[in-house]
Write a structure and sequence with these properties.
Shape: globular
Largest sheet: 7 strands, mixed
Number of strands: 13
CATH class of the largest domain: Alpha Beta
Distance between the termini: 29 Å
Mean pLDDT: 96
CATH topology of the largest domain: Aspartate Aminotransferase, domain 2
CATH architecture of the largest domain: 3-Layer(aba) Sandwich
Order of helices and strands: EHHEHEHEHEHEHEEHHEEHEEHEH
Low-confidence stretches: none
Length: 377
């Protein structure tokens, strides 16, 4: 099977990740739950992972790196910390349901700022026009999980800071390839999963915290045990319950892989593959490709559609030919509404550091095989 669904989960991991998970299962328990070697080894592993993440994403210190089960959990913590019912919130036109449903559940007054696909200046202007005095929060999807569109998070963040509006960055598709600088972004929170561009196991995630954090759930932390209240310090206040120690160990190994390989090198590799795919798909009759004319505006994700064929049907046909892609709305209906693909959805391919040009050529051959031959080109 040719795997091109890395925007959902990176299936192929570095060997070190698997080894780290197994080693943790055999030799570690839970950090903060004892002074014996098994617990101490777990605590050291967790702190090492925080250190690497703080260094990679330019967080002030490792204590501001909070472990979550995924980006969705991190985004819910962030929204819960900053939002009051009825608050007006600005979001991009490319948000994932992990943001939209969290805002909806907490009674936000949501204003979508739609902008042209692959046009960063359009996104900046869309926010600027809607940043009125009653706006209490903004959320920015750093990279669209549907189109790979790199949104101008730092520029929008600068406008938010100038107006005193707190904001959250969803780095689910950017962390590990596109630059994520916590201090340069100036966001209150930046959420990211461990199982995508950071090459960690499923069930892991990171929330970078600036301040004003509020616990989403309560429970044991291994610290401040005499009090019924959650600890008032990071990261403990946001990490109730037993840690996923094997997952954290694997995530640490994944972060080390990205750091050693080089984020810039990974992004360059992914962009080259996406450009190859876009050019090839664009030459196939009855295929529409959603690609950026400017290389700087797109990361390792590409959507396309086949005229006269439902995207889910196309995905099934490709799977039958040994190509794993994602088809449909990709949990991001706002992105499809913004780009005009809501009725049909798209077929999405997404690459990783372990994807090769041979994988792209196999996809192109399969699409050529299933695409209708008649009609307009």
């Amino acid at each position: 099977m040719t795997y091109l669904d890395n925007a959902a989960t990176t299936l192929i991991k570095p060997r070190e990740v698997r080894s780290a998970v197994i080693r943790a299962m055999d030799t570690m328990t839970s950090p903060g739950r004892g002074g014996h070697p098994y617990a101490m080894r777990a605590a050291e592993t967790a702190f090492k992972c925080r250190e690497i993440a703080a260094r990679m994403f330019n967080a002030e210190n490792p204590e501001h790196v909070v472990f979550t089960a995924n980006a969705t959990m991190g985004l819910n913590i962030a929204v819960n910390s900053l939002l009051r019912r009825g608050d007006r919130v600005l979001v991009t036109g490319y948000e994932h349901n992990s943001v939209m449903r969290a805002l909806e559940m907490r009674g936000a007054d949501i204003t979508v700022c739609p902008s042209e696909l692959f046009e960063p200046e359009s996104a900046v202007m869309a926010f600027d026009r809607r940043m009125t005095k009653d706006v209490k929060l903004a959320v920015v999807n750093h990279v669209s999980n549907v189109f790979g569109y790199i949104l101008p998070a730092e520029r929008i963040g600068k406008m938010c800071r100038e107006r005193g509006i707190p904001y959250i960055v969803d780095a689910s598709q950017s962390a590990g390839s596109v630059k994520v600088d916590f201090r340069a972004l100036g966001a209150e929170f930046v959420a990211m999963p461990g199982h995508k561009g950071l090459y960690g196991p499923q069930g892991t995630g990171i929330l970078l915290c600036g301040g004003r954090a509020k616990p989403l759930i309560a429970g044991g932390t291994g610290s401040g045990s005499a009090s019924r209240k959650m600890p008032g310090w990071l990261p403990d206040m946001l990490e109730a319950g037993t840690h996923n120690t094997p997952g954290i160990a694997g995530l640490s190994a994944g972060l080390s892989f990205v750091e050693k390989t080089g984020r810039e090198r990974i992004l360059e590799h992914e962009k080259e593959l996406i450009m190859t795919a876009a050019k090839g798909l664009g030459g196939i009759r009855n295929v529409t490709v959603y690609a950026s004319e400017h290389g700087f505006a797109q990361a390792g994700v590409l959507s396309f559609s086949i005229r006269g064929m439902d995207s889910e049907t196309a995905g099934e046909k490709l799977a039958g030919r040994g190509i794993a892609v994602r088809a449909g709305l990709h949990c991001s209906p706002e992105a499809h509404k913004t780009a005009g693909t809501f009725e049909t959805g798209t077929v999405r391919l997404s690459v990783s550091a372990f994807t090769g040009k041979r994988d792209i050529y196999r996809l192109l051959s399969a699409v050529e095989d299933i695409a209708p031959k008649g009609g307009k080109g």
